[in-house]
Amino acid sequence: MLRLTVIACVLAVCYGMSAEIQPEDLKETAPATFLAEFSTGKPNGKFTVLVERSWAPHGADRFYNLVKNGFYDGCRVFRNVPNFVAQFGINGDPNVQGNWRGGSANIPDDDVKQSNKRGTLVFATSGPNSRTTQIFINTNDNAFLDSQGFSPIGKIVKGMDAVDAMYTGYGEAPDQGKIQDDGNAYLKTSFPELSFFETVGIAKGEVSGLDDVVPENDDELSEDERGAFY
Questions:
Q1: Is the residue at 155 inside a domain?
Q2: Among the listed ranges 3-7, 31-35, 81-85, which one has the minimum average pLDDT value?
Q3: What is the 8-class DSSP label of residue 211?
Q4: How many separate domains does the chain show?
Q5: What's the pTM?
Q6: For residue 121, what are the β-bridge partners?
Q7: Across-strand partners of 46?
Q8: Quick one: average pLDDT of 208-217?
Q9: What is the tens place of the pLDDT at every residue in 57-100?
């Protein structure tokens, strides 16, 4: 059985990351395990992710630092393909996002130690050693991603229903280049119904006796329907 206790206080340094922060400024090593709490908008909800640093140390460290410094606050879930993935992680402020595009923002690959099961949290990548800030949640069991180098960093342990409720009507329509250049101003105008994160913070809590609490979804997409990661 799952026992999850999250203290009401979510640790957050600030609401939203400053454009003055550079990738080289955020090098803190993540705890061996930690909880991240997501508060969603459109619709309102919450879900909690348990991150296990041993699964993917480089990815866990990057995620921990981004969450702790407010990077994902206000981020839109710009790609949501039913029975596949929900993807986010382009900051809504182009001045912030510009600091996290390639070069020094890239982190090394991690070995794939866990399968891409429904409810796992995974960094997107465009090739070897190219992970930066974009993340997807597997909304189906996507084991075929394991051999492609997609390394889960954690899994949802509470609130998967909030993920399932996020808006899927736009599919893959939002243009990632325009998001990078124009941020949330573009998304709010052209895709106003997108789900988003009000806040994402490191939560204090205890987790023991973990079970898999996320039900599997048997519907599978074809390779063409799945699309590609950027």
A1: yes
A2: 3-7
A3: -
A4: 1
A5: 0.87
A6: 137, 154
A7: 39
A8: 48
A9: 999 999 999 999 999 999 999 999 999 999 999 999 999 999 99
Cα angle 126, 43, 64; round to 5: 45
Helix (H, G, I), strand (E, B) or coil at 217: coil
Closest alpha carbon to 114 in 134, 87, 141? 141
Count how many residues are written for the chain.
230
Question: In which domain, by residue range, is 54 found?
Answer: 32-208
Q: What is the pLDDT of residue 197?
A: 98
pLDDT digits (tens, 9 = 90+) for 97-138: 999 998 899 999 999 999 999 999 999 999 999 999 999 999
pLDDT at 212 over 70: no
Please report, as a single letter, which amino acid is at residue 115: S
User: Is the C-alpha dihedral spanning 38, 39, 45, 46 positive or negative?
Assistant: positive
The secondary structure of 8-52, three-state, reads EEEECCCCCCCCCCCHHHCCCCCCCEEEEEEEEECCCEEEEEEEE
Scanning the structure block, which residue is given the tokens 């996320």?
A: 214
CA distance 116 to 188: 31
Share of the chain above pLDDT 90, in %: 80
- Residue 75 domain-assigned (yes or no): yes
Q: With the C-alpha atoms ordered 53, 58, 61, 67, is the resulting torsion angle positive or negative?
A: negative
In a domain? residue 200: yes
* Paired sense of beta strands 79-81 and 85-88, if any: antiparallel
Contacts within 8 Å (CB) and 24+ apart, 82-85: 82/139, 82/168, 83/139, 83/140, 83/217, 83/219, 83/220, 83/221, 84/138, 84/139, 84/140, 84/142, 84/221, 84/225, 84/226, 84/227, 85/136, 85/137, 85/138, 85/139, 85/142
